[in-house]
Amino acid sequence: MADWSDVDGRRHRKQFKNAEDAKKHEHRENAMVHALRAKRELKLSGASGGKKTARSETVTATTSKIAPAKGKLGVMIPGMGAVATTFVAGVEAIRKGLAKPIGSLTQMGTVRLGKRTDGRSPKIKEFVPLAGLDDLVFTGWDIFEDNMYEAASNAGVLDQRLLDQLKPFLSSVTPRSAVFDHNYVKKIDGPNVKKGKTKMDLAEQLRQDIRDFKKTSGASRLVTMWCGSTESYIAAGEAHQSVKSFENALRENDEMIAPSMVYAYASLMEGVPFANGAPNLTVDLPVMLDLSRQNEAPICGKDFKTGQTLMKTVLAPAFKARMLGLNGWFSTNILGNRDGEVLDDPGSFKTKEESKLSVLEHILQPDLYPELYGDMYHKVRINYYPPRGDNKEGWDNIDIFGWLGYPMQIKVDFLCRDSILAAPIVLDLVLLMDLAKRSSELRGLGIQEWLSFYFKSPMTVPGLYPEHDLFIQLMKLKNTLRHLKGEELITHLGLEYYD
Is the pLDDT score of 3 beyond 60? Predict the structure, then answer.
């Protein structure tokens, strides 16, 4: 093992043959980050004619070409469980005027344009050309044969009286047979599973499903949203490094190729954007970044940021902003839905744990603030408790210290509804990933880091650490929308108000 340092001075530990290899890796990764940052700076400089407005809280941007959202948008969902059915039922309820899209930034949020004194704050859905809810059509894959109405009833998230009003529509959405392997999700099994000699055969079957759905639904555009279960932990290996090695692994039924990766491969090969709502690697692999860029199919992930981690990305930035120290953060959860059952398996829990543990280190940066965060203890537990159903409860005990080292405690008990928090995230990602696909500037980038706002473990290019701070993430998202439309970027400097 050896350490290497990134461009921001953060140390990372990785397996190398020798110190020389570690140095080469450090040089290569940092050169890539410097190049990306220089490219961004050049864009901003060119956008403002090379002039810097030091006293303004806005920076001028150029307009990106965005194709109009014409026709139907097909939403394809691997995993028609609690999250997926709550999302689809919610969309239909909103379309029928039975409910409001609470929790959806794209539907209810606004974006400030120009100075604070300008009074311009349109709704996001009126500012950028998003698909309308009436244009969404749905399909999915699942190991169980229940249609959306039956699956939603079994999930027990939504009131049965509401589901009964939506029954004709929900009953029409039936699951396609799924790509599934019990070795990757050990706690559940089902009969509605594809068969094939190789994983490449299964990928080809998925690609045919995608073509069939696009044809039968009349959709002009598609997006894939992974809402399936958390798979057992897999580390990236040789099979994931290139398209050639990945396709060879598919033909050889390599155990390093999990089912979610087969869905991702099929989608990206068809030019379909893919968002990963679970902590699985799935699209966070070199091969998927290559395919995403080659086929101009945006990717993003990982793991929807809903309950406990949402609270961490709110509270931890506050501690850091006020230079309050942290001795320890103990987090435990109880939940009883299918997600809880799956995470009762140590392999699947390991995948989730990796996602949840990374948040505090990236926000608090203990290497930069060793006196405040160098010795913090962070523990995460998840317990399957069937009586609780989808109503997850997250407890946090936080030991902080302040002036002169005096200790204090914060305790959080978040009694949340997991799928209720996740459903609007799915809606926003569907609409924003479609926007990225229609944007001349975004569709060829691969990873859509500006959508980090929605994820526990945001994807970035190699060598670039993710932003976990919820408020930085929101600023990044809204500034991206401003940039796409040629509006000034908001920096919040604001000295011009006092000239």
Answer: no
